[in-house]
Amino acid sequence: MTEKRASRNGSSSALSRLRGRAAHHPEGAAHEAHPPDGETHDAADMAGRDEVMERRRGPREASIVPGGTVAGAALVAVVAIMTFLAGLTIGGVAAVRTVASEWTSDIARETTIQIKPGDGLDVAAALEKARGVAQATSGVASARVMGERETAALLEPWLGTGLDLSNLPVPRLIIVELSPDAGPQTIDDLRAGLASQVPSASFDDHRQWTQRLSSTARLVVAGGLAILALVTAATVLCVVFATRAAVDAGRAIVEVLHFVGARDSFIAAEFQRHFLNVGLLGGAIGGVGAMAMFFLASTAPRWLGRGTPADTLIGAMSLDLRGYGGILGVAVLVSLVTAVTSRVTVYRTLRRIS
Q: At what angle do helices 251-259 and 2-24 cross, to 10 degrees?
């Protein structure tokens, strides 16, 4: 008798909370709560005993999903951490792509002609002749001979200072800058002209370095997408377990709603609304944290008097507006994934309860 009385009291409390919610959302209750004919009178009798007390307290909105719990706060923290890691990944990928694009563009705009000293070769004459061939080629903006001091400066890290290039068989370079409208035909014409007029010259269009940079950028993008997929999968798993725990915590309420004929879509919408708020809060915290880290990395050196953003092996790592937009998109994506995952999980859980 005691267990039956406790069960009835729990059901009455759950029905009272449902009636309180229906006071704020009469249309939802009207469309989604249709008690079966055989159980209408029993449900009405149980709810009628609390009707007078409910009217005295006044209408209030009660949520099906338990809120303000330690598990809920922990889920917000998990979503924030996942969003932060995903934001760092997307921001890093965007920064690397920007640097690689700048490097590729700079390399593609410049080519070099090399004259190697040989027996009986007049290096100075060969340099001038090769420079003339380059300047006469359509699509070449300028061509200049790298001076001896510049050449010695390139060798200083390995050979030290005070070099006398006249006593060393050091190749001399000509820097050729291409015009913006230059195409593959310009490279072919320049290579053919040098081969016919200056056989001692070798031409380097840096194609190998361009291909390496492009391959590196593609690998970084692929790795970033893989990390993003792992972070998304971890977020989905966390939300699945949190949703099941929330359904189990409110199992009595869910069973009463089923008892009075509420549709699964109504119950799932309540959980989806709750976890969407969790996702938005966690996504906002993690996204703002990732943006702040990139912003500080690009501006703190200037504040400290160092002048440039944090330098890496491939150059200064800074984030443009597209990078910040990518982090914002990741935060929104995590929020949507959280909401959709909770809805799907609730549907599956309700099928098991039924």
A: 80
Question: Which sequence spans correspond to the domains of the chain?
Answer: 1-59, 63-101+213-353, 117-199
Of 170-174, 205-209, 263-267, 314-318, give the lowest mean pLDDT range.
Answer: 314-318
User: Which are the contacts of 23, defined by CB distance < 8 A and separation ≥ 6?
Assistant: 59, 60, 61
- The pair of structure tokens assigned to 232 is 């998304």
Q: How many CB atoms lie within 10 A of CB 45?
A: 10
Say which residues have a Cβ less than 8 Å from residue 255's Cβ, sequence separation at least 6.
Answer: 14, 353
Give percent of the chain with pLDDT exceeding 90: 9
Q: Return the residue matching tokens 């982090």.
A: 327
Contacts with 1 (C-beta within 8 Å, 6 or more apart), sequence order = none
DSSP 141: E
Q: How far apart are CA 219 and CA 322, in angstroms?
A: 20
- What pLDDT was estimated at residue 21? 47
Distance separating alpha carbons of residues 248 and 242, to the nearest angstrom: 10
Give residue 45's pLDDT band: very low, low, confident or very high (50, 70, 90): very low
Please say whether the beta carbons of 165 and 152 come within 8 A.
Answer: yes
Mean pLDDT of 329-352: 86
pLDDT at residue 2 tops 50: no
Q: CA Rg, the chain, in Å?
A: 35
CA gap 122, 258 in Å, rounded: 96
Element spanning 223, H or E:
helix 207-249
Supply the mean pLDDT for the chain: 75
Rounded to 5 degrees, φ, ψ at 127 are -65, -45
Angstrom distance (rounded) from CA 353 to CA 248: 10
- Dihedral pair phi/psi, residue 58, rounded to 5°: 90, 160
Question: Per-residue pLDDT tens for 230-272?
Answer: 988 888 888 888 888 877 777 788 778 877 887 888 888 888 8
